Amino acid sequence: GLERGAKNQFSTFSNFITTINQKKEGIGNRNSPTQLVIPNIKNVRDLPPICLDVRQKQRISIDTLPQEVKAPIPTEPSLPIRTKTVKDFQDDVENAKSSGDWKAVHDFYSTTFDSFLEINAAFKKDTNSPFNTIEDSGINAKFVNVVYDALLNTPQDVQKSVLKGVINGLLQEWKGPRTKDDLRAYCILLQNPQFSNTSTYVIYAHLLRQIAALTEADHHFLVHWSKKISQRRFKQLVDRLLQFISLRLFPAKPEEFPPMVKCTWWIPSATKVLALFNAANSLINPPIISYTDFYNSTLDHIDLMEEYHNWQCYGNSHRFSFCQYPFIISIAAKKVIIQRDSEQQMISIARQSLVDKVSRRQKPDMNMLFLNVKVRRTHLVSDSLDELARKRADLKKKLKVTFVGEAGLDMGGLTKEWFLLLIRQIFHPDYGMFTYHKDSHCHWFSSFKCDNYSEFRLVGALMGLAVYNSITLDIRFPPCCYKKLLSPPIVPCDHNTFVGISDVTLDDLFQIMPELAHGLSELLSYEGNVEEDFYSTFQVFQEEFGVIKSYNLKPNGDKIPVTNQNRKEYVQLYVDFLLNKSIYKQFAAFYYGFHSVCASYALLLLRPEEVEILVCGSPELDMSALQRSTQYEGYQKTDLTIRYFWEVVLGFSLDLQKKLLHFATGSDRVPVGGMADLNFKISKSETSTNWLPVAHTCFNQLCLPPYKNKKELKQKLIIGISNAEGFGLE
């Protein structure tokens, strides 16, 4: 921000604005800057609604317009002639620093930022070219960067002159649609580093408001121009917007800002502009920055369920909700929304069961409040399938698992083990439901036809139950699977509607079958005669139970040769066949199984990558983070046994660390909130040191005897964690 100069650089911001106002009154300007920035402004109108009808249940994104939006292009006014180059400007700055005379630099800044026309005159690459396409903004980005990089190191009167000019530009009366020069000026002004300082937030807010109120066609241009910004500066712009939202929500000095009731449009405007950058980011592969860089962790501390209910209830009204822009909500916050939504559904279902029981004058039974699953270890899959099919109406109740013949009481640990063993068995290659691809280390659906797809529905239901009951699973599906799982995110009412069909690309195939994808990529780049050298047709062959079967990728595909002209179509149809059509029935059953448990509008908030994290957790173990967050009962963290324990664990291989995590928590995956969310506890066991460690997986608790030396502790711990399947009491 504006760190240089006196500490009270803007003694009071209103004084600064008043000075500008007086000067403008002196030349008879009827647009009073006071109306722009004084907190006690009256007759402030809210922005037009910037959210879609929630009943359409679509995410806000500005990335779905055609390549060119045919909108009327207003006539561009003629620009003043400005000849200053980057080197000229840099020389002026160096001379000012050495001589102390900043007049030339001051004149440049005050002239350049005095109006949108002057901004274009200074920074447009060619003032005689219109630059009316999405491909080239026409902005001399290098010059813009140099000017802004120097700005914060100039005297305060120079910086104030820039802000005065920005106000002049924002006060301009607009007649008719914006020109492309106007859009260029907005794009340049957004990059002003002065807007990192809270003292400039009133001006920044009005800039954001004007950009948010632009037409969809204008937004389309801004989105495509923004994707050309360098990664570092793109990240700075995003961080500046996130900081603006955070400080408006929770101001460190509330007196710095107008009262919230006077500026309800600040946060919606900033969020809408942030949506433009999110759209630009999604147009690039790989993206400019990670999708997680758009998370605003400040939102973790607001009433998320109120946001969620506003989003659900108010439709296309003036009521703003962050849920309209889910990219800004962190995965941890989304997990809270989904969990609470699940809990409310569980309570509702359980309450209805209780009412039904009482209305029939039957004695209530506590078991009726749960989804009780009883299985035999020797018939795990068949028993689980029967139980879930028979109790389909209870799937949204809290899950409790009982292993027949075992005395374990399910406080969470048995449920975790049931998931783990069931997933391990279903995904075994001998079972034939999924194919494991060694090159990509992931599973994919077997394309073999079968008479009954109910087991695929079971796997989907398991994933739904895991999300619903906050259990992480060790499932290795490619990202494409989660994209299909959200296609669409809400189950369609018409059962004839196709589900689980997504737009797949060669990149998706690379994540599953890299060798095949590489071959298809070679076909696309082949410089010879494809038809003569490859001698292929629009037909594919697959082996099913020892029999080779052929499938046409399009009607009469076996008679259509693959040529240099149609090879792109061939590759796209081949990928679509492998990832969509050949496994449609299997994946549809899987889709319906998942949504039979997890049907919730909260799924609309999730990206495919976030669904994967919710289902599987993270495989990245950080035992040092676990050590920092561990609680102790009967021990102090400085006790010798505890010090031995962490020395041993931090020296374990990754495989042994995963076994320890599974032994103590019932899962070897890290939940969404990281190791701290495990609430891991080590308790002192007052038993003989000849005993092995004991775990209470329901509570993520490890009971550790006070072993006398590190060697004995390591030996007993490895034996314990390596033989940790089953629950029994003696």
From TrEMBL:
It comes from the Eukaryota. Keywords: Ligase, Phosphoprotein, Transferase, Ubl conjugation pathway. It catalyses: S-ubiquitinyl-[E2 ubiquitin-conjugating enzyme]-L-cysteine + [acceptor protein]-L-lysine = [E2 ubiquitin-conjugating enzyme]-L-cysteine + N(6)-ubiquitinyl-[acceptor protein]-L-lysine. Pathway: Protein modification; protein ubiquitination. PROSITE patterns: HECT. Pfam families: HECT. Its EC number is 2.3.2.26. It is an enzyme of class 2 (transferase). One of its GO terms (molecular function) is ligase activity. Residues 391-730 form the HECT domain. The active site is at 698 (glycyl thioester intermediate). E3 ubiquitin-protein ligase which accepts ubiquitin from an E2 ubiquitin-conjugating enzyme in the form of a thioester and then directly transfers the ubiquitin to targeted substrates. It comes from Aramus guarauna (Limpkin). This is Probable E3 ubiquitin-protein ligase HECTD2. GO terms for biological process: protein polyubiquitination.
